[in-house]
Every structure is written in C-alpha cells, then in structure tokens.
Design goal:
This protein has helices at about 20-30, 70-80, 110-120, 140-145, 150-175, 175-185; strands spanning about 1-5, 40, 45-50, 55-60, 85-90, 100-105, 125-130. The chain has about 190 residues and is α/β, with parallel strands linked by helices. It is globular, with a radius of gyration of 15 Å.
Length: about 190
C-alpha cells in the first residue's frame, strides 16, 4: 500500500493558506479518483481506495502542522505501514510558486511539520514532494506569510502544480521514487 501525507492545518481559517498546499494536493487527488476523506483513529482524515489497481491511502493530519508526526506515527502503527511507501506533500519556501521538487531525504529545513515527522519516524529518509510557495518579501514575517492566502496571481499557478503533483503521485505507484524524481525534477 502506498500512502501519501499532505501537510496542513485543520480549520476553515487555514483552508486556502500557503501552509495548506499539502492538503490542497490531496483534496484534488481525492476528487479526481473519487476518494472520500473520513475521520480516523490516526489523528487525521483518511481517504483510501484503488488507484491504477493499487491500494492507496491519503492522510491529512488533524494535529496542526507542528504535530504532524503524531498522525504519521499513529498511521504507521495502526496500519502496520512501511515508511518506504510514504510520500509527504508539503509547502516549501525555497521553491518558486507553481513549481515542485521531489527528494527522498534531508533535514527539515525549518519546516515544523517535517521536523515533527522526522522526530516521530526516527529518520530523515522518507519521500517528499515539496510544492513551492516562494519566500516572502524582505522584512515580512515568515509565519504571517505561510499562514496567509495565495495572491490572485499565485492562485492562477496552483491548478497546474497540483495536477503535476497528482501525476507524480500516480507515477510513483508503478515506479521507484528515484525514477519519479528523475522524471518530475527535470
């Protein structure tokens, strides 16, 4: 079973913020594949079903961003899941809006959701799709920026990058993550 974790914050006030682009990617994927999110015992919402003939689980932690690792650990334990089959999808300040980058290991880079997952998973080695949100203008608070909504111009770029994220998710079902990185990081 492949499982995808989209990072974000629960609640209507966070729905369209830059920090919730991981949730946005999973929502778009779930809609495309007719999967429905339900509250679960894994401290989040889960949608599961068959995609391209393979069982897939989507997890949106309900723990708020800084505690995302709690939901990942609960999922690992409840489903007896394999960390190698997990792909985490989240916002990245160091990637331009409208772009995505894939990687399979590394530090949290200041991202508290990733920091929590590293802490609870006990490793920095797991598959990641980073969706670009760009950096704020100098002097602007990073916290206010990531918890702010995309500008009108940025929103125009979202559908394409969310679709591309979905394509990478599907491709990863039948290929190694290294192959997926080679195809989608070019």
């Amino acid at each position: 079973m492949k499982w995808f974790v989209g990072l974000g914050n629960p609640g209507r006030e966070y729905k369209d913020t830059r920090h919730n682009v991981g949730f946005m990617a999973l929502d778009r994927f779930a809609e495309e594949w007719n999967l429905t999110f339900k509250e679960s015992k894994c401290k989040g919402w889960i949608a599961e079903g068959l995609v391209e003939g393979q069982k897939v689980c989507l997890l949106k932690p309900a723990t708020f961003m800084n505690l995302s690792g709690e939901a990942v650990r609960a999922f690992l334990q409840f489903y007896k899941a394999n960390l190698d089959d997990m792909v985490v999808i989240y916002d990245d300040l160091d990637t331009e809006v409208g772009r995505m980058r894939l990687r399979y290991q590394g530090s949290a880079g200041g991202h508290n959701g990733i920091k929590s997952i590293i802490q609870h998973a006990g490793t920095q080695t797991f598959n990641r799709i980073r969706i670009g949100i760009s950096r704020p203008q100098p002097g602007r608070s990073v916290v206010d920026y990531v918890l702010g909504e995309f500008s009108k111009e940025e929103r125009k770029l979202l559908p394409e990058v969310l679709d591309k994220t979905g394509e990478a998710m599907i491709y990863s079902l039948g290929h190694t993550f290294e192959q997926t990185m080679a195809k989608f990081n070019s």
